[in-house]
Design goal:
mainly alpha; rod-shaped; 137 residues
Length: 137
């Protein structure tokens, strides 16, 4: 039932289907590109992170031994000096670790780990697609 100036329902549906397929393909490619970029950076930085973690762990263990020995020296005549020193260091580390974990948890909760950019684009495209569908029908 076309008169040359308007499209039939089948043509409109086919056109919408083609645009939807192109839309989904493009958005999937965007999402894949974003994840590929993040994966590439992670692969490049992983060895350096391992080396850094090993060096920091070694330094932390040596610093802990230093703290224990220094605190034990403050209690030199006592038979419990190393026990007290270990306890003081453990409490200190528990406080520092607790504060760090709390701050990290709040940051993760606040910022999130979702791919915000692609979700924002998909939302805009969803609104555009709804508008296009309403205009064509």
């Amino acid at each position: 039932m076309t008169n040359g100036h308007s499209k039939g329902v089948i043509e409109v549906v086919e056109e919408l289907r083609d645009e939807l397929i192109e839309f989904l393909t493009t958005r999937f490619e965007m999402l894949e590109a974003e994840f590929d970029e993040k994966t590439r950076v992670l692969k490049m930085s992983a060895p350096l992170l391992g080396i850094g973690a090993l060096a920091l762990t070694t330094a932390w263990l040596l610093f802990t031994a230093f703290l224990v020995v220094m605190i034990a020296q403050a209690f030199a005549p006592s038979a419990w000096r190393f026990t007290v020193a270990f306890l003081v260091v453990a409490v200190l580390y528990a406080l520092v670790g607790g504060v760090a974990a709390y701050v990290a948890w709040r940051l993760l909760k606040e910022k999130g780990v979702k791919p915000e950019r692609i979700l924002r684009v998909l939302k805009q495209d969803s609104l555009w697609l709804e508008t296009e569908a309403k205009e064509r029908i």
